[in-house]
């Protein structure tokens, strides 16, 4: 049977639909939790692991769309798949605009559902990995001495050692030493990799 | 004993029969195709939702098509860098996901599709929607099909001249942005040939406050035609409808226009671009492409739409409106009431739904439905001999209209259990495949449940399509002719019941306006109820339909020789779900009341002093019709 890491949360006020969809995904090897309302889901949110959310669009209380808005900040980590009746076109437009991962129509067949969940979990895992990479890099960045940090910033801007030395008023040899130490502390193999990490994490974005 | 419409259970079976009879084209082909609608804007313009609704409604019946949408927001993020970043993002998003058709809405989207299609959606074909002179040559050349939009300023101006015969000047108003100017020049060029008949005054490049001031002092010989207004000369930015609303508030003269989203702001009407129709046309082109057929270039439809309140405000002779005109903002807001009945219908129908859902899944249902069909067919042939075919078809349309109200609610409610059944059955099949025992017999049974449940889902989708969006047709009505039609339709049934069905019609009745099918529906309800009331009576059975001119209206009365309405029931007679029939839904009279209110009329019931009941409806007379 399929085994895919990650949690799938199913939120639907209709208990038959909720359990049906939940059982189907469980039988396909996913870890599934079901909730009868957006509120119940929010109250139970646990530690982050790759996960996705399947939510009915028409629910009393907090609607699927409102839940989506509430979760917006973590949107990339928790992709949302909407289940919907046919009549909600304008809502669909809103949800897609707000970054819904996918939109499925009831009754939903197993293949498109499982496929959407698998892609959503992959996307979730990817963005969590990216976030972890970022956090680790930012952590390592704090290990640099102020001088090493200066060197890092200038190097990333594409300055040559000589220019860097001029800019900071130190010898070119000293720059080389700082540069080597900095690369070692940051655990990056090349300047290219460093630039990529800095850009992706917006490490110096406040400058 | 007669508070009901046509035999309701029979109706439902008929509705299912109709739905089942539609060709199951999709079932044979399992491949799921993807259609992506790519919008230039960020989704806030009403036109955008309308286009999307058009596409969705046309593709709604195709279960093998997935519909996606994407917004470029090119107004706020213009330039190559933004475009590249969006393209990169979309390339990643659609990696490994085939898109078969891209519908590009507006010039930026069409240009984007032209530039990046090969990278992002390599296997897709494109349909471009836009004004022909806005779309770039490259986009026009590479799109596989085009739905051209046309704004019909000339027809709109002509109607303004017809409705306001004293008009000497048409005031064209334009905003100050680049887009405003493009629209303005287009309108000016299109209207130029009219300059020999009417003065064309151009107000362009002014602050809104100044425009309002000038509008407030217009003389009676002018009408106003705002073209587009995203920004005024002071740099204030607007959603055009907001600007039109401010203009209408200060204008001494009626405002015409070609954008439907401006209705309700105080604009009188015009020949409107039908964005939803454009979406439908694009979707039809997409369907053709998916079938591997060439999709010809088409032009999006325009339609006449007017605001009823504005027509009243300017005392417009509505008889002079183009025949196909749609009227919005009818008085009394009866649709709201109508809608409430539908919500109430869900409550009842959910109970019935379980029984009917079981029927759907059961193979036996097919045989039953066929039997019902055969019976209906036999009955039809029999009556055909005595009635004109045309009349019969009208009756059938009436029948469907009634079913429509309940079917829409039913479709919604049945979809949930159908969803649950499908997921559970598919889960069970997976669990048994893994843990056993999945014997061949069990496997076959599960497959049957799944495929039959899918079929039930398709039936629901078809029913939805069937009852979707019935337009309200607002035309001049000859009520005597309608009474004639209805009595002819019911003649056979009356004869069978041994009831004398008679008419007493006033000559020279003025015309009224309304939806012929809906008014027929009301009259059919009343006559049929009257016939039912008479049956079982031992005395002479008779039903009389009369028309009478009243002060400022026309009254149609249907009186019967039955036992009259129970006095306890009388006050609640028009409430939904009140029925005295064992198998009645009790919706007939409540629907009739909603229809009458929508026509600005009324319906009432009373008992005659000497026995029998009389139901009557009253229509307002429209001056100048």
Descriptive notes:
The complex is a heterodimer of chains A (207) and B (625). Chain A has helices at residues 15-27, 38-43, 64-71, 89-97, 110-141, 146-156, 161-168, 172-186, 191-201, and strands at residues 7-11, 31-35, 51-56, 80-84, 102-105. Chain A is α/β, with parallel strands linked by helices. In chain A, helix 7 packs across helix 8 (172-186). In chain B, the strands form 5 sheets. Chain B has a 6-stranded parallel β-sheet with strand order 2-1-3-4-5-10, with helices on both faces. The chains are: A alpha/beta (207), B alpha/beta (625). Chains A and B meet through helix 1 and helix 4 of A and helix 2, strand 2, helix 14 and helix 15 of B.
The two chains with the largest interface, and their residue counts, are: A-B, 30 and 38 residues
Low-confidence stretches of chain B: 1-29, 332-359, 385-390
Instruction: Please identify the oligomeric state.
Output: heterodimer
Low-confidence region ranges of chain A = none
Q: What's the main sheet of chain A like?
A: 5 strands, parallel
Extended strand count of chain A: 5
The average pLDDT value of chain A, as a whole number, equals: 82
Order of strands, main sheet of chain A, comes to 2-1-3-4-5
- Integer-rounded radius of gyration of chain B: 29 Å
The secondary-structure element order of chain A is EHEHEHEHEHHHHH
Radius of gyration of chain A: 23 Å
Q: Which band does the percent of strand residues of chain A land in?
A: 5-15%
Beta-strand share of residues of chain B = 15-25%
- Rounded average pLDDT of chain B: 79
Q: Determine the number of helices of chain B (DSSP H or I, runs of at least 4 residues).
A: 18
Distance between the termini of chain B: 39 Å
Structural class of chain B: alpha/beta
């Amino acid at each position: 049977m399929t085994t895919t890491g990650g949690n799938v949360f199913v939120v639907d006020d209709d208990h038959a639909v909720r359990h049906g969809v939940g059982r189907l995904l469980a039988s396909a090897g996913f870890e599934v939790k079901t909730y009868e309302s957006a509120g119940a889901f929010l109250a139970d949110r646990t530690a982050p692991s790759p996960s996705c959310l399947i939510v009915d669009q028409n629910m009393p209380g907090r609607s699927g769309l409102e839940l989506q808005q509430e979760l917006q900040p973590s949107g990339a980590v928790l992709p949302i798949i909407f289940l919907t009746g046919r009549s909600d076109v304008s809502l669909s437009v809103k949800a897609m605009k707000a970054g819904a991962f996918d939109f499925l129509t009831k009754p939903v067949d197993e293949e498109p559902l499982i496929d959407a969940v698998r892609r959503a979990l992959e996307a979730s895992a990817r963005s969590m990995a990216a976030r972890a990479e970022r956090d680790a890099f930012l952590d390592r960045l704090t290990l640099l001495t102020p001088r090493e940090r200066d060197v890092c910033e200038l190097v990333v801007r594409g300055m040559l050692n000589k220019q860097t030395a001029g800019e900071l008023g130190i010898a070119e040899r000293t720059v080389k030493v700082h540069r080597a130490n900095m690369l070692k502390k940051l655990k990056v193999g090349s300047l290219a990799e460093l630039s990529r990490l800095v850009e992706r994490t917006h490490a110096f974005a406040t400058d | 004993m007669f508070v009901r419409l046509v035999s309701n259970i029979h109706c439902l079976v008929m509705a299912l029969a109709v739905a089942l009879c539609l060709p199951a084209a999709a079932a044979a082909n399992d491949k799921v195709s993807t259609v992506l609608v790519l919008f230039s804007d960020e989704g806030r313009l009403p036109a955008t939702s309308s286009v999307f609704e058009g596409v969705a409604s046309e593709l709604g019946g195709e279960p093998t098509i997935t519909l996606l949408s994407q917004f470029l927001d090119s107004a706020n993020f213009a330039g190559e860098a933004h475009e590249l970043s969006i393209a990169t993002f979309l390339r990643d998003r659609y990696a490994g996901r085939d898109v078969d058709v891209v519908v590009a809405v507006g010039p930026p989207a069409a240009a984007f599709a032209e530039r990046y299609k090969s990278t992002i959606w390599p296997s897709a074909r494109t349909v471009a929607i836009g004004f022909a002179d806005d779309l770039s040559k490259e986009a026009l050349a590479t799109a596989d099909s085009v739905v051209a939009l046309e704004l019909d300023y000339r027809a709109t101006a002509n109607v303004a001249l017809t409705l306001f015969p004293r008009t000497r000047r048409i005031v064209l108003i334009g905003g100050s942005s680049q887009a405003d100017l493009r629209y303005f020049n287009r309108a000016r060029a299109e209207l130029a040939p009219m300059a020999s008949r009417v003065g064309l005054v151009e107000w362009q490049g002014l602050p809104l406050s100044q425009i309002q001031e000038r509008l407030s002092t217009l003389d009676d010989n002018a009408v106003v035609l705002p073209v587009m207004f995203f920004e005024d000369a002071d740099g204030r930015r607007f959603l055009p409808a907001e600007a039109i609303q401010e203009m209408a508030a200060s204008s001494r003269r009626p405002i015409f226009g070609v954008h439907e989203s401006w209705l309700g702001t105080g604009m009188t009407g015009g020949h409107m671009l039908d964005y939803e129709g454009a979406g439908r046309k694009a979707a039809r082109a997409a369907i053709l492409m998916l079938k591997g057929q060439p999709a010809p270039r088409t032009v999006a439809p325009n339609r006449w739409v007017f605001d009823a309140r504005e027509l009243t405000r300017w005392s417009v002779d509505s008889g002079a409106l183009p025949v196909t005109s749609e009227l919005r903002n009818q008085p009394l807001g009866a649709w709201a009431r109508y809608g409430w009945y539908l919500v109430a219908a869900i409550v009842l129908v959910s109970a019935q739904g379980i029984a009917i859902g079981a029927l759907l899944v059961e193979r036996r249902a097919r045989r039953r439905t066929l039997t019902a069909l055969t019976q209906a067919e036999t009955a039809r042939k029999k009556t055909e001999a005595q009635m004109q075919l045309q009349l019969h078809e009208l009756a059938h349309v009436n029948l469907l209209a009634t079913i429509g109200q309940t079917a829409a609610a039913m479709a919604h409610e049945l979809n949930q259990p159908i969803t649950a059944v499908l997921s559970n059955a598919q889960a069970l099949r997976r669990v048994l495949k893994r843990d056993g025992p999945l014997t061949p017999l069990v496997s076959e049974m599960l497959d049957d449940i799944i495929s039959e449940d899918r079929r039930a889902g398709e039936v629901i989708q078809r029913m939805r399509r069937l009852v979707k969006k019935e337009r309200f047709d607002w035309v001049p009505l000859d009520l005597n002719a309608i009474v004639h039609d209805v009595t002819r339709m019911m003649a056979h049934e009356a004869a069978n019941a041994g009831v004398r069905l008679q008419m007493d019609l006033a000559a020279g009745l003025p015309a009224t306006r309304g939806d012929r099918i809906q008014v027929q529906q009301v009259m059919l309800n009343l006559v049929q109820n009257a016939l039912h009331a008479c049956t079982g009576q031992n005395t002479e059975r008779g039903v009389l339909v009369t028309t009478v001119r009243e002060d400022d209206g026309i009254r149609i009365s249907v009186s019967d020789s039955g036992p009259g309405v129970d006095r306890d029931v009388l006050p609640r007679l028009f409430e939904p779900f009140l029925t005295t029939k064992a198998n009645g839904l009790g919706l007939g009279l409540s629907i009739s009341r909603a229809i009458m209110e929508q026509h600005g009329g009324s319906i009432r019931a009373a008992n005659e002093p000497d026995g029998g009941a009389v139901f009557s409806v009253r229509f307002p007379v429209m001056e100048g019709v």
